[in-house]
Amino acid sequence: MPRAPRHLASGEAYHLTSRGTNKCDVFLDDSDRRSFVRRLGTVALNRQVSCLAYCLMGNHIHLILRGSATGMSETMRDLLGGHAQWFNARHARSGHLFGARYNDVHISSDAQMHAALRYVALNPVRANLVNHPRDWPWGSFAAVTTGTVHPGAVDLVALASILGSARADADGVRERLLATVDVGLSAARAD
Question: What does the pLDDT look like over 91-106, one tens digit per residue?
């Protein structure tokens, strides 16, 4: 029996996650991670999707995307499928890399968007990998706050608008993102 189609709404934002098959690692080293971030930027630009946040963990990924329903579905197909093919070729393996279909959670309010941005940024803190998300080089938080965003990997203009920054430059976004994430930092450390 075929799977039911997704019902993503065009122009809406979604928190998307995908995990490795049987919780296997989907990144074995920094080359895997760099390749994924480059691919994310390229695919998002090609599909005209705004990536608002990402975080690469060992066996799963978090993305916050906004765009057309078709663009987001195609972005996930190209991103996950492309990474799996590259990863399998590079590491001499075969078979599925990502497990079940990616999960999508519709972000329907400003409060939910801020919570999702916070959640994605603080994922490595909750996992006890770092004390602050700026120390996790494989998340958009560190990329934005250090000014090292790969082209297309984060839509700074869209993020500035969401965060209420009058300035769409990296400095304006950095200040607002820090304020948004720092609200949840102590709770994430306690988790």
Answer: 999 989 998 889 999 9
Q: How far is C-alpha 2 from the chain's CA centre?
A: 28
Q: Is the pTM of this model over 0.90?
A: yes
176: which 2 tokens?
């607002």
pLDDT digits (tens, 9 = 90+) for 114-138: 999 999 999 999 999 999 999 999 9
| DSSP, res 94 | -
Q: Which long-range contacts (CB under 8 A, 24 or more apart) does 153-157 make?
A: 153/37, 153/40, 153/41, 153/44, 153/51, 153/54, 154/51, 154/52, 154/53, 154/54, 155/44, 155/50, 155/51, 155/52
- Mean per-residue pLDDT for 86-90? 95
Per-residue pLDDT at 46: 96
Count of helices and strands (H, E) across the chain: 7, 4
Confidence (pLDDT) at 168: 65
Q: Dihedral sign for Cα 147, 150, 151, 156, please.
A: negative
Taking a C-beta distance cutoff of 8 angstroms, is the pair 10, 19 a contact?
no
Task: Please spell the DSSP secondary structure of 13-43, one letter per residue.
Answer: EEEEEEEBGGG--S--SHHHHHHHHHHHHHH
Q: Are 165 and 176 in contact (CB under 8 A)?
A: yes
Q: Quickly count: other Cβ atoms within 10 Å of residue 106's Cβ.
A: 12
**Cβ atoms within 10 Å of 140's Cβ, excluding its own:** 28
Q: Give the pair of three-digit tokens for residue 166.
A: 């009058």
